[in-house]
Amino acid sequence: MKEITLSAIGDTIKNFEEKIAQAQTLWEKVQIFFDTYKVWILVGLVVLVGIIFFVNIMEAKKRKDDRDNKK
Q: Along the 71 residues of the chain, how does pLDDT read in single tens digits?
């Protein structure tokens, strides 16, 4: 299973490098990058938004607890 996953990752990187080498403009290279790694970019954005959301909730809870302690 691990070998299959590593093989798939290696093939993806090899195909990416070949497509980048064939691209002639910077815009084409950017499009190839986003087409190849869009899933990972989306996962990263979801994780980032989740972390920010969690931190904001914890800060709001802390402020509420501080207000309640002052009363």
A: 666 777 877 788 888 888 889 989 999 988 988 888 888 888 899 999 999 999 999 999 999 988 888 86
Would you state the structure tokens that stand for residue 70, as one six-digit string?
């002052």
User: What is the total count of domains within the chain?
Assistant: 1
Strand residue runs (E) in the chain: none
Nearest-10 crossing angle of helices 2-22, 26-70: 120
End-to-end CA distance of the chain: 59
pTM of the entire structure? 0.54
Q: Which domain holds residue 19?
A: 2-70
Radius of gyration over every alpha carbon of the chain, rounded to an integer in angstroms: 21
